[in-house]
Design brief:
Blueprint: H1 5-31, E1 35-39, E2 43-45, E3 57-67, E4 71-78, H2 79-89, H3 94-103, H4 106-111, H5 113-134, E5 138-150, H6 154-158, E6 166-175, E7 181-188, H7 189-193, H8 207-276, H9 282-302, H10 305-350, H11 354-381, H12 388-405, H13 423-426, E8 433-434, H14 440-449, E9 454-459, E10 462-468, H15 469-475, H16 490-493, E11 511-512, H17 517-527, E12 531-535, E13 541-546, H18 547-555
Parallel strand pairs: 8-9, 11-12
Antiparallel strand pairs: 1-6, 2-6, 3-4, 3-5, 4-7, 6-7, 9-10, 12-13
């Protein structure tokens, strides 16, 4: 059968346009994005003249053809097309794709080689299907290589001489909302010159068998493409689960550390209480000593007079030493309490509260005088005048002790009534809301705009979950941080697409507006949570109370408590 070289060339150009359209349809169905392609006027070119069209980076997919066309042709993408198509395949965020289109480096392009190769497999499979159906005598198409880099180095890599005659068919392609980019097909003229003018007619072929083979090959290619796309998604899901497991382990470690701190604090508090207990335990020992006196006196009567006299002198000496030690201890205690009162008085004088301290001091002196008189009276009534002085000194020490342990408030101290402040008085009313289907990238942007450390997840005031910046930090890849830039992979960017409903805290511990500050602090201590949403009787969110709102309330003690809730939530919780 006679075949014209010109006709074959025309058919190849027409089929390349149909192949690009079919490729766009397959990609749209696989990745859910609109793709369009339009052909422009073909031109005669050389590898050298094509440098004007591809001034930056380029990706070249070499395709080996068998049958009527026996040789190799090439599909080329400019820098914008290279990063756009590869970014769609690995599901990069839109801002990363746009940035790479403008300023992507050769190293970053080389990192996309696997994605470009995958795009080449999908493209070659589509073209092979179209050419088998449309070009008589066509055998088979297969990908023979991929080049990524500056166009000046492409010719040698793909086997083109700088002066080889080429037929270049340019196209404009658009993917989704991204700007249009240039691509095209390079047909070496030598590929068409090898076509014989006269070819013998082929023997009849079993059309049914041929169609079955083609259908099986097409199904196999689709299955392979679907399997590869599924693998990419599974890898992204696996990476997300690993990050979630790391975040969960980190939370457990923090909870254990917090519990350990609480145990240490409780042990320290018990130790201080044991040290501060009144010396009541010494009284039974004193009573036992008094009970032993009759027995000791009876025993002393049985001893000789000389031994009794020596023992009396020893007892008197011991009593004198005990009295001196008690006097020294009382003097030391009185000195410490006096220094404490003087320090408190000096502090109050610096804040202009002289009168209140003077009144407290005068009251303390009156209490000491009354205690001394009472101790003297009790000693006189009991007939033990020798111990009046010791009893008076003990009463003064006891009075000072009671004064230091008294709950009486000095200016600047926090009153226990302050802990009755309610959640509605300190909560932050302007909270940030989002939906469970939002990505962590969208959530982080919204929280940064609202200067918030937390985001409510739900609709119309009904709470479904709570997300903090620490939740987001645990979900996204650490290799997105600038310090790890040299280890960054395209798969790390996929973690920005994780939905917040997969990482949010639920169920959420909520409180009512009338909940006291004491109860809020106690609940935070027990639950190890740093923020509680405040809800009304119908369960709708009215605001949010964080540990920083509590700090602000404590710092403003003595001021207007109703104003503490105006303090913005700090994003430093992460």
């Amino acid at each position: 059968m006679a075949i014209s070289q010109t006709k074959t060339e025309t058919e190849a150009v027409d089929l390349s346009a149909e192949s690009f359209d079919t490729f766009c349809e397959d990609m749209s169905g696989m990745f859910g994005v609109e793709m369009e392609c339009s052909e422009e006027e073909p031109s005669e070119e050389t590898a050298k003249s094509l440098e004007k069209r591809f001034k930056k980076l380029a990706a070249v997919i070499s395709v080996k053809t068998e049958g009527l066309l026996d040789g190799t042709f090439h599909v080329v993408l400019d820098q914008e097309g290279l990063f756009t198509l590869a970014g769609i395949i690995v599901m990069l965020p839109e801002r990363i794709i746009l940035e790479n289109r403008e300023r992507g480096s050769a190293e970053e392009a080389e990192g996309m080689s696997d994605a470009v190769g995958e795009a080449g497999n999908l493209l070659v499979g589509t073209w092979d299907r179209v050419f088998r159906e449309g070009l008589e005598g066509h055998g088979h198409l297969s990908q023979s290589g991929t080049f990524i880099g500056a166009w000046g180095k492409a010719g040698k890599s793909i086997g083109l001489g700088r002066s080889d005659k080429l037929l270049y068919v340019p196209y404009k392609m658009t993917i989704g909302s991204y700007p249009t980019f240039d691509c095209g097909v390079i047909w070496p003229r030598s590929l068409f010159e090898c076509i014989p003018e006269d070819e013998p007619e082929e023997e009849p072929v079993d059309e049914e068998a041929k169609k079955e083979e083609e259908a099986a090959a097409e199904a196999k290619k689709k299955e392979e493409a679907t399997a590869k796309a599924r693998k990419i998604k599974e890898d992204a899901a696996k990476a997300r689960k690993e990050k979630e497991a790391e975040a969960e382990a980190k939370k457990e470690e923090e909870a254990e550390a917090e519990a350990k701190k609480e145990e240490e604090a409780e042990a320290e508090a018990k130790k201080e209480e044991a040290v501060a207990e009144p010396k009541e335990e010494e009284e039974p020992a004193a009573e036992a000593k008094e009970e032993e006196k009759p027995a000791a006196e009876a025993k002393e009567e049985e001893k000789p007079a000389a031994e009794a006299k020596e023992e009396e002198e020893a007892v008197a000496e011991a009593k004198e030493e005990e009295s001196e030690s008690q006097e020294a201890a009382v003097a030391q205690e009185d000195s410490e309490k006096t220094e404490q009162v003087e320090e408190e008085t000096a502090a109050v004088n610096e804040t202009g509260e002289d009168e209140a301290v003077a009144e407290d001091k005068e009251s303390s002196e009156d209490q000491e005088d009354e205690a001394v008189e009472q101790a003297k009276k009790e000693a006189t009534d009991a007939g033990d005048s020798d111990n009046v002085e010791d009893s008076s000194e003990g009463s003064v020490s006891e009075t000072i002790r009671r004064m230091t342990e008294s709950s009486a408030e000095l200016p600047g101290e926090v009153s226990s009534q302050f802990l009755k402040v309610t959640a509605s008085e300190i909560m932050e009313k302007d909270v940030v809301w989002g939906k469970g289907d939002d990505s962590v990238e969208e959530a982080l942007s919204r929280m940064q705009q609202g200067d918030a450390g937390y985001m409510m997840i739900g609709r119309e005031g009904v709470l479904e979950g709570l997300v903090s910046k620490s939740d987001i930090a645990g979900a996204v890849s650490v290799y997105l941080r600038p310090v790890f830039a040299k280890w960054h992979r395209p798969l790390d960017d996929a973690t920005l697409k994780i939905k917040v409903k997969w990482i949010m805290s639920r169920p959420v511990h909520v409180i009512k507006g009338e909940t006291s500050l004491y109860s809020i602090i106690d609940n935070m201590r027990q639950s190890s949570q740093r923020a509680f949403p405040v809800v009304d009787a119908d369960g709708k969110v009215e605001g949010l109370v964080t540990v920083f709102d509590i700090f602000a309330a404590i710092m403003k003690v003595g001021g207007d408590v109703s104003s503490v809730g105006k303090t913005a939530q700090s994003p430093a919780l992460v």
